[in-house]
Predict the structure.
Amino acid sequence: MRDLTVDGLYRSFEEQGYICEKNLVVTVFLALKLGKPLLVEGAPGVGKTEIGKVLSRIFNAQLIRLQCYEGLDENKALYEWNYQKQLLRIQLQKEGIGTEMAERDLFSAEYLLERPLLKAIRTEEPVVLLIDEVDKVEEEFEAFLFELLSDFQVSIPELGTLTARQIPLVVLTSNRERDISDGLKRRCVYLFIDYPSIEKEVRILQVKAPEAGERLSREVARAVSLIRANDGIGKKPAISESIDWARALVALGAASLTQEAVKQTLSIVLKNKEDIDTVVREVGVKALAAGAQKA
Protein backbone atom coordinates (compact mmCIF):
# COMPACT_ATOMS: atom_id res chain seq x y z
CA MET A 1 0.00 0.00 0.00
CA ARG A 2 3.07 2.21 0.21
CA ASP A 3 2.97 2.84 -3.55
CA LEU A 4 -0.78 3.42 -3.64
CA THR A 5 -1.94 6.54 -5.50
CA VAL A 6 -5.34 8.16 -5.96
CA ASP A 7 -5.22 7.62 -9.72
CA GLY A 8 -4.16 4.00 -9.31
CA LEU A 9 -6.94 3.32 -6.83
CA TYR A 10 -9.46 5.03 -9.10
CA ARG A 11 -8.40 2.81 -12.02
CA SER A 12 -8.70 -0.25 -9.77
CA PHE A 13 -12.26 0.70 -8.80
CA GLU A 14 -13.15 1.13 -12.48
CA GLU A 15 -11.56 -2.23 -13.35
CA GLN A 16 -13.71 -3.87 -10.67
CA GLY A 17 -16.83 -2.34 -12.24
CA TYR A 18 -17.43 0.15 -9.43
CA ILE A 19 -18.44 3.39 -11.12
CA CYS A 20 -17.82 6.40 -8.89
CA GLU A 21 -16.55 9.97 -8.74
CA LYS A 22 -12.91 10.81 -8.11
CA ASN A 23 -13.84 12.46 -4.79
CA LEU A 24 -15.10 9.14 -3.44
CA VAL A 25 -11.81 7.45 -4.29
CA VAL A 26 -9.87 10.30 -2.65
CA THR A 27 -11.74 9.67 0.62
CA VAL A 28 -11.10 5.92 0.45
CA PHE A 29 -7.44 6.61 -0.36
CA LEU A 30 -7.07 8.83 2.71
CA ALA A 31 -8.65 6.20 4.98
CA LEU A 32 -6.17 3.63 3.68
CA LYS A 33 -3.15 5.92 3.98
CA LEU A 34 -4.11 7.12 7.48
CA GLY A 35 -4.84 3.57 8.62
CA LYS A 36 -8.30 4.56 9.84
CA PRO A 37 -11.66 2.81 9.45
CA LEU A 38 -13.88 4.11 6.65
CA LEU A 39 -17.45 4.98 7.72
CA VAL A 40 -19.77 5.04 4.69
CA GLU A 41 -23.27 6.49 5.12
CA GLY A 42 -26.12 6.75 2.63
CA ALA A 43 -29.52 5.38 1.69
CA PRO A 44 -29.91 1.61 1.21
CA GLY A 45 -28.69 0.41 -2.16
CA VAL A 46 -26.29 3.17 -3.18
CA GLY A 47 -23.16 0.98 -3.13
CA LYS A 48 -21.85 1.24 0.44
CA THR A 49 -21.33 -2.46 1.07
CA GLU A 50 -19.81 -2.92 -2.36
CA ILE A 51 -16.87 -0.68 -1.38
CA GLY A 52 -15.71 -3.29 1.13
CA LYS A 53 -16.08 -6.06 -1.44
CA VAL A 54 -14.20 -4.09 -4.07
CA LEU A 55 -11.32 -3.35 -1.68
CA SER A 56 -11.03 -7.04 -0.81
CA ARG A 57 -10.65 -7.86 -4.51
CA ILE A 58 -8.24 -4.99 -5.24
CA PHE A 59 -5.90 -5.99 -2.41
CA ASN A 60 -6.52 -9.72 -2.72
CA ALA A 61 -7.63 -9.75 0.90
CA GLN A 62 -10.06 -12.01 2.71
CA LEU A 63 -13.45 -10.35 3.24
CA ILE A 64 -14.83 -10.86 6.75
CA ARG A 65 -18.33 -9.46 7.16
CA LEU A 66 -20.18 -8.67 10.36
CA GLN A 67 -23.84 -8.08 9.56
CA CYS A 68 -25.24 -5.90 12.31
CA TYR A 69 -28.76 -6.20 13.70
CA GLU A 70 -30.72 -5.16 16.75
CA GLY A 71 -29.67 -7.27 19.72
CA LEU A 72 -26.17 -8.08 18.41
CA ASP A 73 -23.80 -8.48 21.36
CA GLU A 74 -20.11 -9.14 21.96
CA ASN A 75 -20.52 -12.91 22.12
CA LYS A 76 -22.03 -13.12 18.65
CA ALA A 77 -19.62 -10.60 17.14
CA LEU A 78 -16.35 -11.42 18.93
CA TYR A 79 -16.12 -14.95 20.32
CA GLU A 80 -17.97 -17.76 22.04
CA TRP A 81 -16.86 -20.88 23.79
CA ASN A 82 -17.61 -24.15 22.08
CA TYR A 83 -19.80 -25.50 24.87
CA GLN A 84 -20.70 -28.69 23.03
CA LYS A 85 -17.06 -29.59 22.57
CA GLN A 86 -16.32 -28.73 26.20
CA LEU A 87 -19.17 -30.91 27.46
CA LEU A 88 -18.05 -33.77 25.24
CA ARG A 89 -14.51 -33.50 26.64
CA ILE A 90 -15.84 -33.50 30.21
CA GLN A 91 -17.94 -36.57 29.47
CA LEU A 92 -14.98 -38.41 27.95
CA GLN A 93 -12.87 -37.59 31.01
CA LYS A 94 -15.57 -38.94 33.32
CA GLU A 95 -15.51 -42.16 31.34
CA GLY A 96 -11.73 -42.34 31.65
CA ILE A 97 -11.10 -41.70 27.99
CA GLY A 98 -8.30 -39.37 26.98
CA THR A 99 -5.68 -37.55 29.01
CA GLU A 100 -6.32 -35.90 32.36
CA MET A 101 -7.09 -32.19 32.06
CA ALA A 102 -7.69 -29.29 34.43
CA GLU A 103 -10.69 -27.00 34.24
CA ARG A 104 -8.58 -24.19 32.79
CA ASP A 105 -7.75 -26.42 29.85
CA LEU A 106 -11.39 -26.28 28.82
CA PHE A 107 -10.96 -22.56 28.21
CA SER A 108 -8.00 -22.77 25.87
CA ALA A 109 -7.80 -21.65 22.26
CA GLU A 110 -8.83 -25.16 21.21
CA TYR A 111 -12.36 -24.50 22.47
CA LEU A 112 -12.65 -20.92 21.26
CA LEU A 113 -15.08 -20.09 18.46
CA GLU A 114 -13.89 -17.01 16.61
CA ARG A 115 -16.68 -14.72 15.46
CA PRO A 116 -16.06 -12.06 12.75
CA LEU A 117 -14.35 -9.38 14.88
CA LEU A 118 -11.89 -11.74 16.55
CA LYS A 119 -11.29 -13.64 13.33
CA ALA A 120 -10.45 -10.38 11.54
CA ILE A 121 -7.68 -9.44 13.96
CA ARG A 122 -6.33 -12.97 14.46
CA THR A 123 -6.01 -13.88 10.79
CA GLU A 124 -2.44 -13.55 9.53
CA GLU A 125 -3.43 -12.92 5.91
CA PRO A 126 -4.64 -9.49 4.65
CA VAL A 127 -8.24 -8.85 5.68
CA VAL A 128 -11.01 -6.38 4.86
CA LEU A 129 -13.40 -6.22 7.81
CA LEU A 130 -16.85 -5.10 6.66
CA ILE A 131 -19.13 -4.03 9.52
CA ASP A 132 -22.43 -3.67 7.73
CA GLU A 133 -25.34 -1.48 8.91
CA VAL A 134 -23.70 -0.43 12.16
CA ASP A 135 -26.61 1.96 12.82
CA LYS A 136 -28.77 -1.06 13.75
CA VAL A 137 -26.85 -1.98 16.92
CA GLU A 138 -27.40 -0.56 20.40
CA GLU A 139 -25.16 2.23 21.69
CA GLU A 140 -23.47 -0.12 24.20
CA PHE A 141 -22.23 -2.38 21.42
CA GLU A 142 -21.15 0.63 19.39
CA ALA A 143 -19.04 1.83 22.34
CA PHE A 144 -17.39 -1.60 22.56
CA LEU A 145 -16.80 -1.48 18.84
CA PHE A 146 -14.90 1.78 18.69
CA GLU A 147 -12.67 0.68 21.57
CA LEU A 148 -11.80 -2.45 19.64
CA LEU A 149 -11.11 -0.43 16.48
CA SER A 150 -8.81 1.94 18.38
CA ASP A 151 -6.39 -0.67 19.71
CA PHE A 152 -7.17 -3.75 17.63
CA GLN A 153 -6.88 -5.95 20.66
CA VAL A 154 -9.36 -7.73 22.90
CA SER A 155 -9.23 -9.13 26.38
CA ILE A 156 -10.61 -12.60 27.00
CA PRO A 157 -10.66 -13.33 30.76
CA GLU A 158 -9.50 -16.93 30.37
CA LEU A 159 -6.81 -16.19 27.77
CA GLY A 160 -5.65 -12.65 28.47
CA THR A 161 -5.18 -9.92 25.86
CA LEU A 162 -5.14 -10.94 22.21
CA THR A 163 -3.48 -8.42 19.90
CA ALA A 164 -4.04 -8.18 16.17
CA ARG A 165 -1.60 -10.14 14.05
CA GLN A 166 -2.23 -7.59 11.30
CA ILE A 167 -4.40 -4.48 11.13
CA PRO A 168 -7.39 -5.12 8.85
CA LEU A 169 -8.85 -2.61 6.43
CA VAL A 170 -12.13 -1.67 8.10
CA VAL A 171 -15.25 -0.46 6.31
CA LEU A 172 -18.36 0.40 8.31
CA THR A 173 -21.67 1.17 6.62
CA SER A 174 -24.75 2.97 7.93
CA ASN A 175 -28.21 3.55 6.44
CA ARG A 176 -28.60 6.50 8.84
CA GLU A 177 -31.49 4.91 10.71
CA ARG A 178 -30.01 6.55 13.79
CA ASP A 179 -27.10 8.86 14.46
CA ILE A 180 -23.72 7.23 14.93
CA SER A 181 -21.93 8.34 18.11
CA ASP A 182 -19.25 11.01 17.96
CA GLY A 183 -16.83 8.53 19.52
CA LEU A 184 -17.08 6.20 16.56
CA LYS A 185 -17.05 8.98 13.98
CA ARG A 186 -13.85 10.43 15.46
CA ARG A 187 -12.09 7.16 14.81
CA CYS A 188 -13.16 7.00 11.17
CA VAL A 189 -12.79 8.75 7.85
CA TYR A 190 -16.31 9.73 6.81
CA LEU A 191 -17.87 9.21 3.38
CA PHE A 192 -21.44 9.94 2.27
CA ILE A 193 -22.86 8.35 -0.89
CA ASP A 194 -26.01 9.73 -2.48
CA TYR A 195 -28.18 8.24 -5.21
CA PRO A 196 -26.38 8.51 -8.55
CA SER A 197 -27.06 11.16 -11.16
CA ILE A 198 -28.72 10.02 -14.38
CA GLU A 199 -25.40 10.05 -16.22
CA LYS A 200 -23.68 8.02 -13.52
CA GLU A 201 -26.51 5.49 -13.39
CA VAL A 202 -26.33 5.09 -17.16
CA ARG A 203 -22.63 4.22 -16.81
CA ILE A 204 -23.43 1.73 -14.05
CA LEU A 205 -26.12 0.07 -16.15
CA GLN A 206 -23.79 -0.17 -19.14
CA VAL A 207 -21.29 -2.03 -16.94
CA LYS A 208 -23.73 -4.21 -14.99
CA ALA A 209 -26.35 -4.80 -17.72
CA PRO A 210 -24.54 -4.20 -21.02
CA GLU A 211 -27.18 -6.19 -22.88
CA ALA A 212 -29.64 -3.31 -22.35
CA GLY A 213 -27.69 -0.97 -24.60
CA GLU A 214 -27.16 2.75 -24.23
CA ARG A 215 -30.69 3.88 -25.16
CA LEU A 216 -32.61 1.57 -22.83
CA SER A 217 -30.10 2.17 -20.02
CA ARG A 218 -30.68 5.91 -20.31
CA GLU A 219 -34.47 5.47 -20.32
CA VAL A 220 -34.33 3.29 -17.19
CA ALA A 221 -32.02 5.77 -15.45
CA ARG A 222 -34.36 8.68 -16.27
CA ALA A 223 -37.43 6.78 -15.06
CA VAL A 224 -35.76 5.70 -11.82
CA SER A 225 -34.71 9.30 -11.22
CA LEU A 226 -38.36 10.40 -11.57
CA ILE A 227 -39.45 7.70 -9.11
CA ARG A 228 -36.80 8.63 -6.55
CA ALA A 229 -37.83 12.29 -6.78
CA ASN A 230 -41.28 11.39 -5.42
CA ASP A 231 -41.33 11.89 -1.65
CA GLY A 232 -44.46 9.79 -1.25
CA ILE A 233 -42.81 6.40 -1.68
CA GLY A 234 -41.50 4.51 1.32
CA LYS A 235 -38.51 2.77 -0.29
CA LYS A 236 -36.67 4.46 -3.11
CA PRO A 237 -35.23 2.10 -5.73
CA ALA A 238 -31.67 0.96 -5.15
CA ILE A 239 -29.11 0.77 -7.92
CA SER A 240 -29.49 -3.02 -7.91
CA GLU A 241 -33.18 -2.59 -8.70
CA SER A 242 -32.34 -0.32 -11.65
CA ILE A 243 -30.08 -3.08 -12.94
CA ASP A 244 -32.83 -5.67 -12.45
CA TRP A 245 -35.29 -3.42 -14.30
CA ALA A 246 -32.99 -3.07 -17.29
CA ARG A 247 -32.41 -6.83 -17.40
CA ALA A 248 -36.14 -7.52 -17.06
CA LEU A 249 -36.92 -5.24 -19.99
CA VAL A 250 -34.29 -7.01 -22.09
CA ALA A 251 -35.79 -10.38 -21.09
CA LEU A 252 -39.19 -9.19 -22.39
CA GLY A 253 -37.63 -8.02 -25.63
CA ALA A 254 -38.49 -4.38 -24.94
CA ALA A 255 -36.51 -2.01 -27.13
CA SER A 256 -37.63 1.03 -25.14
CA LEU A 257 -39.50 1.93 -21.95
CA THR A 258 -43.03 2.22 -23.31
CA GLN A 259 -46.16 2.67 -21.19
CA GLU A 260 -46.94 -1.02 -21.64
CA ALA A 261 -43.41 -1.99 -20.57
CA VAL A 262 -43.71 0.20 -17.46
CA LYS A 263 -47.02 -1.45 -16.51
CA GLN A 264 -45.55 -4.94 -16.93
CA THR A 265 -42.32 -4.36 -15.04
CA LEU A 266 -42.87 -1.64 -12.41
CA SER A 267 -42.94 -4.32 -9.70
CA ILE A 268 -39.29 -5.08 -10.49
CA VAL A 269 -38.15 -1.65 -9.34
CA LEU A 270 -40.75 -1.05 -6.59
CA LYS A 271 -41.19 -3.81 -4.04
CA ASN A 272 -44.50 -3.09 -2.32
CA LYS A 273 -48.02 -2.32 -3.49
CA GLU A 274 -48.27 1.00 -1.66
CA ASP A 275 -45.23 2.42 -3.47
CA ILE A 276 -46.45 1.13 -6.83
CA ASP A 277 -49.86 2.71 -6.27
CA THR A 278 -48.24 6.00 -5.21
CA VAL A 279 -46.02 6.19 -8.29
CA VAL A 280 -48.86 5.28 -10.66
CA ARG A 281 -51.12 7.87 -9.02
CA GLU A 282 -48.66 10.71 -8.44
CA VAL A 283 -46.14 10.26 -11.26
CA GLY A 284 -48.12 8.25 -13.80
CA VAL A 285 -47.17 5.49 -16.19
CA LYS A 286 -47.38 7.88 -19.13
CA ALA A 287 -45.05 10.37 -17.45
CA LEU A 288 -42.52 7.63 -16.63
CA ALA A 289 -42.44 6.46 -20.25
CA ALA A 290 -42.43 9.97 -21.72
CA GLY A 291 -39.90 11.33 -19.21
CA ALA A 292 -37.61 8.38 -19.77
CA GLN A 293 -37.58 8.88 -23.52
CA LYS A 294 -36.82 12.59 -23.52
CA ALA A 295 -33.70 13.46 -25.40
